[in-house]
Amino acid sequence: RRRLAPLNEDNGRFLLLAALIAAYLSAGATVFSALESPSEAAAQLRWNRTLHNFSRIFNISLPELRAFLRSYEAAMAAGIRVDALRPRWDFPGAFYFVGTVVSTIGFGMTTPATVAGKVFLIVYGLFGCAGTILFFNLFLERIISLLAFIMKACHERQLRRSGLLPPNFRRGPAMSGVGSLVGWKPSVYHVMLILGIFAITLSCCASAMYTAVEGWNYVDSLYYCFVTFSTIGFGDLVSSQNAAYQNQGLYRFGNFIFILMGVCCIYSLFNVISIVIKQVLNWVLKKFECRCCPKCHKSSARLGRRNAITPGARLRRHNISIDADGQYDSDTEGRRLSGEMISMRDLTASNKVSLAILQKQLSETANGYPRNVCINTRQNGFSAGVGALAIMNNRLAETSDSR
């Protein structure tokens, strides 16, 4: 009977992350339930006491009072308040609404009430959210490029001070001759630290503005900044909703800039943190690799010594940067364990790698500086990642346990 193929690294990482997320959700639910449940029960008790006292003092039956309160709740859902508020569907209010839609913040304080508005929102949000996610990815690419340029300049300055670079060194074709800068990439941890400091500074400045203008306390302002910038958008606190403010135009502009920069910065920070989480998952998988089956190491070692030519070993001897997430697949492993000297898939991958190296050299010659090309032996267009994860993998170092 044919044995099932062992769980590969990608699936193992996915299942491990799913288990960790489930545990994280359970732990969060436990903590929030313990913190908020007593307060909710006490508030419900106070409200029931107030309701009965009001009914007794003003001689109003409880069913009539509850019917009135239901009408008031419906009015609140429609955007009607006791105190005067800004119009919800004038042009500034509608612009604020569409901004929260395409950025996926979704405060919920304004919602379309007509059927035509709801249908238009579905079509509008489909393209708007997709375009905004693309904008976030392009912002991420450019902020990483800017940080890489600054950090590389600092790295060159440090090398000059230590005497590893000549004083008259300049960027350009001469860079290829300097071994200390070939293939240099900024550390993901340094980028995470810089983005974290910038996000904290931005949130503190925005919180100071909201505290002064909206009248919130500073903790509520920080809470609002995180909920908004992370696109959670509960809607319990919403800025720029009063009928009038002092210097209203300036405040609305500042509010827009803070929200835009905050969402972009937190989005970038989340993606950097996701790379770190992926590294932790790789480390955990490596620690647990084949611990339950020590025979696998022995059989793999015997087969490795028996094979005279191994494309993977040849690639490692030439120090080719290969993505650690997909060095082998199940078909390749099965062929090697069957005793074949070399698999056709490995041979094809080796030829592909050689072609990629040639293309890399041509690119370096045409552009005058080396480009770091991450070559993957798996012939899969998505193996290097897509979207923000691919951007981070291509532009930052220490994104795999092989580095």
UniProtKB/TrEMBL annotation:
InterPro entries: 2pore_dom_K_chnl, 2pore_dom_K_chnl_THIK, K_chnl_dom. It is found in: Cell membrane. It catalyses: K(+)(in) = K(+)(out). The chain crosses the membrane at residues 94-112, 119-140, 188-210, 222-244, 256-277. It comes from the Eukaryota. GO terms for cellular component: monoatomic ion channel complex; plasma membrane. GO terms for molecular function: metal ion binding; outward rectifier potassium channel activity; potassium ion leak channel activity. It is a multi-pass membrane protein. Keywords: Cell membrane, Ion channel, Ion transport, Membrane, Metal-binding, Potassium, Potassium channel, Potassium transport, Transmembrane, Transmembrane helix, Transport, Voltage-gated channel. One of its GO terms (biological process) is stabilization of membrane potential. Residues 86-143, 199-278 form the Potassium channel domain. Its main location: membrane. It holds the Pfam family Ion_trans_2. Belongs to the two pore domain potassium channel (TC 1.A.1.8) family. This is KCNKC protein. The gene is Kcnk12.
